[in-house]
Fold these 3 entries.
Entry 1:
Amino acid sequence: MAADTSQRADGSGSDGSARPTGRPSREAAEQIEATMLDAALATFIEAGFQGASMEAIARRAGVTKRTLYRRARTKSDLFVEVVERLAHQSGMPNLARVEAGPLEQRLQAAGEILLGWLLNPHAIALYRMIVAEAARQPGLALSVDGPFQRASTAIAAILAEDGARPAETVRLGADMFVRLVAGEALDRAAQGIEPAGVSDRTRARAMAAIAFFLAGWRSWPASAPPLP
């Protein structure tokens, strides 16, 4: 019987044995990393966090478990990387690069970025998974809170340029902006009330939410004491 000489995506043999292929090029290494994260995303969405295993993810990616564990020490670490990568791919870092201009114009641009990120079909699927597993994995949502915190920080930087207010008030305003503009759209999409993606209706409601926010923000006294 002929020996199986097929290789995995990471260059190892189909039996998991190492192949003397040398160190992969930078491009090959980046492709292996992308393949692993793609496989992890698909597996988490299909099986849920509890049902997903590092073995299943490695198998789907065509790499050994050793290769996968070199990328992430635990399944939780891998999940965080999946969420961070999705936020990056969806344009979330652009929140920190919104062009200068009138406050309303800048917040509208920020709102578009938020919607594009949170209404991505994969983001919605992961959000549903986190909610479904909240009782068994109460720390799961907190572990992937980083992108939301950075989004709020970027909005706070925009608001801080609109007059002197206590830093605590600016941060609270930024948190409220994110929830007001994108929270409803995310919840409706996660519940299946609205389709994934940014529709004209979703965009119009987000722009209305920004107008509501600005009405309250501009009427809030600059000398008001900081809120908790």
Entry 2:
Amino acid sequence: MPFTDPYPAKSGNTPPRPGVLTIDVRKAARVARMGESPDTQARELATEARDRVRFEEEALQLADQVYRVARRLVHSKEEAEDLVQETYARAFRSWRSYTPGTNLRAWMLRILTNLNIDRGRRQQRAPDTTHLEESDYFLYNRLEDDSADDEERLLQRLSQNDIVDALAAVPHDFRDVIVLVDIGDFSYQEAAQILDIPVGTVMSRLHRGRRILKRHLAEATVGGE
């Protein structure tokens, strides 16, 4: 049986076979990179180095503000210093993921918040053997409740694990506001300045975030029954 070419040659422009175009594009890109002059490569490396230096300089200018938030999130100066050091270490490793021109302070504080949650998980105490101190209830005390009896029962069942896990389950935008206002004890105006959002947005996110957090805490108590 004679062989029939499914892609016969035609006069004029010949359409490529499937897969040929992709291969050619990749080959062309590879050839283009290989064809870059040493000067071009050097300029690209120099540009990236300048971008990184600029990022690090701008990030370090926020060190006092980052430490201020960290100090309100942990119990001691030493813990705050460690948390800030971890925050900057991760930020410097991930600097390419930051979009220039956006709110660097909020980006840094989000890293700080996530690391603090991770630290809380690592330092979890056994819920069945260790009771929370009154100071550990500060977050739930900020949440509105319609029934004092229900709140009392909920507090009796809460553990540090529950609080950390519930906070981690809150979406980032709402969690950022909760961390600043309810944990960091910043004013609405201060939180708005830090996150570069209107005060009204802070209040709205805080209200919704508290409802989300409260729901997760309530689910934690039900799950533990």
Entry 3:
Amino acid sequence: MVDSVPGQGTTFTIMLPSHAAEAGAVRKVEATDAPEASETIGAGTVLVVEDEDAVRLFSARALRAKGYKVLEARTGEAAMELMGVIEEPIDLLITDAVMPEMDGPTLIKNVRDATPEMPVICISGYAEETFRKRLGEDTDIHFLPKPFSLAQLAGKVKEVLDRVAHQICGPCLCFVATHDTGLVSNRL
């Protein structure tokens, strides 16, 4: 699949069927096989909604460094307005749970009303159980507690987007290469 936008670049998505290894061909994973930084490189558009400038700027800069296109909003209202005017799809919503006026759970409900399949990561300094009570039945929301590191953020984003890609592709390997960054990521 090829997506091309003049002046913004081209994305090629190649989906290959998975291959089962022959018996005995699988090697044992050793403790030294820790994920490398390159394994958290990804592709896609992420909307970060956070009223604390330092957290929003850190998150946006960290995700851009990992190859994601990042849109930013300081409030839930600004996020809804942004989603109403941009033409490209958003692959992931990352939102703070507690914000003035429109809080995270309200934003998630509004976004899911318009885009039910939108993957969501909620970030919060409060306990996950407190946040989950406000969401009701919607269990398909991922949680990342504050404070978090670059590695934790990048790992959670990659985990969620890989899960979505796996649901779309089934058991296949997906390679995404972007012309503008030259980055390639594999999603299982």
